[in-house]
Amino acid sequence: MKKIIVLMFLSLFFLFLFPIQGNAAANTSKIFLNGEQLSLPNDVQVTIVNKNVMIPIRVVAENLKFDVDWNQQARQVKIQQNEKVISLTVDQKQAMVADKQVTLNTAPQILNKTLVVPIRFVSEQMGLSVKWNNQEKIVYLTGSNNEPTEASGDDSGSDTTSLTHVTDIVFADNQLVVSMDGEQVQPVISTLKNPDRLVVDLPGTVFGDLAQPLDQGLNGKLDVTGYPNVSEVRYSLFKRDPGQVRIVVELNNVKDLQFDQNVIADKLLIDLNVSGDSVTPVPVTPGIDTGRKVVVIDPGHGGSDPGTISITNKPEKEYVLALGLKVQALLLNEPDIELVMTRDSDIYPTRSERVQLANELNADVFVSIHGNSATSSPQASGTETFYYQRSSSKDLANIIHERLVKALGFKDRRVKNGNLQVIRETTMPAVLLEIGFLSNAAEEKAMSSEEVQAKAAQAIVDGIKEYLGI
After folding, report:
1. pTM higher than 0.85 for the full model?
2. For residue 342, which of 208, 212, 268, 298 is within the disulfide window of CB 3.0 to 4.6 Å?
3. φ, ψ for residue 127 (rounded to 5)?
4. Confidence of residue 317 (pLDDT cuts 50, 70, 90)
5. CB within 8 A of 36, min separation 6: which ones?
6. Please, what are the domains in the chain?
7. What pLDDT score does 256 carry?
8. 183 contacts: CB under 8 Å, gap ≥ 6
9. What is the pLDDT of residues 194-246, one digit of tens each?
10. How much is the pLDDT for 265?
């Protein structure tokens, strides 16, 4: 009896000292696709299950770019590329390839709330060859339909000096703004399902002196608190040779996703027009035709949307509201003008709601007030004014811009055509004013002063009156 007790004790001792390894083990494996390493976020782990390499379904969709459809109720995932379709079910080794049933070595599983699938099976069914380096824990994927790359001549090295540098990534007012320093980049934008997300690829780019933090794997995330339709905005160096930055906007409770893109100077702007479950419309009171001109003043951002952050860490929304209220005070003294403010406090009407307000009022003029920023170039300065296509908007822009530049003495960055929602979708003469650069120490100081704000407000009012013939 004593021997049995001693043996049991020793068994328990060695069990705690040398625990038996489970079937699943996460490791720091790397994945190469056609010779280029895929940049995986920190929260994505390659897992070994029964000696089979398993990858999260998120990698299949975002990195391998296959279409993925997840049926939560049936616990079934459908993966598709062109005409090739495979269907997998959680915890079942039987899978469907087209109309044929096949048996897997290891069934798909949900580990730590993440669906993982066997990379060899999925990749080979989609025409990729798979090699596994067990010593270095590397997965090599190659295919005959490699993505085209630009010819690099005799220079086969990765000279990042010839690439465009991403210097700032901002998400505000449901708008993604990417600042770049270098040659203009043609973005490749796609949408993916389950979850719904917008994927923005920037070929020929690497990270420069980025204002946002990066981890050791060159990945990062933005704070999207206050945006109920956006659950996450993440970015990474997706390809290293040649460089390619990828930005993913993951959406939440979105009924309909539409987006507009525009490149202005060194900035890529992507407007997300999302319809969700939490839309609070701006109340509009039908006005009586008094013969007065209706002017809508729109201090940008507000509430949960701070706008850009100045060099002294103050939000743009505070500056533009202060200036907007000074414009309001002046226009209220004009008997021939009926003034409407999109906001006169720290609230956040969406861009669509601002447009709706102006259009339903059948306004005569719409003026949106903003502060500019270029964190990668703190020396950038000046006033610029945007309009969208209509000649009447261009006339209004020229008049107000000329008065602003004269009153403030900032650098003249000219009047420009810009594809921005609040001036594109409004039906009256509409302009967007970038008064100056809050990322420039001298201009931010000036723009925050009561004296300069008073000059800017008077210039805006005088420009509106001149355009309206008052």
Report:
1. no
2. 298
3. 90, 10
4. very high
5. 239, 240, 241
6. 21-143 (3.30.457.10), 163-275 (2.60.40.3500), 293-468 (3.40.630.40)
7. 67
8. 164, 204
9. 677 888 888 888 887 777 777 777 788 888 877 778 888 999 888 877 788 99
10. 64
Sheet holding 197-203, edge to edge: 188-192, 197-203, 243-251, 230-240, 219-222
Give the CA distances from residue 51 to residues 94, 95, 109, 112, 143, in Å, rounded to whole numbers and listed in that order. Answer: 18, 19, 14, 19, 24
pLDDT tens digit sequence for 328-387: 999 999 999 999 999 988 888 888 899 999 999 999 999 999 999 887 778 889 999 999
Residue 55 has pLDDT above 90, yes or no: no
For residue 36, which of 137, 117, 139, 129 has the smallest C-alpha distance?
139
Do 396 and 365 touch, CB atoms closer than 8 A?
Answer: yes
pLDDT in the model for residue 112: 76
Strands lying side by side in the sheet with 205-207: 205-207, 164-172, 175-181, 267-275, 256-264
Considering only CA atoms, give the Rg of the chain: 28
Confidence at 397, pLDDT banded by 50, 70, 90: very high
> 291 vs 16, 287, 342, 398, 436, CA distance in Å?
87, 11, 21, 25, 35
Burial of 285 (0-12, 13-18, 19+ CB in 10 A): exposed
Nearest partner of 421 among 302, 271, 297, 301, judged by Cα:
271
Long-range CB contacts (within 8 A, 24+) of 253-259: 253/228, 253/229, 253/277, 253/278, 254/196, 254/229, 257/191, 257/196, 257/198, 259/189, 259/198
Q: Name, in order, each residue with C-beta under 8 angstroms of 235's C-beta and a sequence gap of 6 or more.
A: 169, 212, 219, 220, 221, 222, 245, 246, 247, 248
Report how far apart, in Å, the C-alpha atoms of 126 and of each of 32, 80, 102, 130, 335 are: 16, 8, 15, 11, 70
Share of the chain above pLDDT 70, in %: 80
Q: How far is CA 421 from CA 75, 267, 279, 330, in A?
A: 40, 16, 17, 27
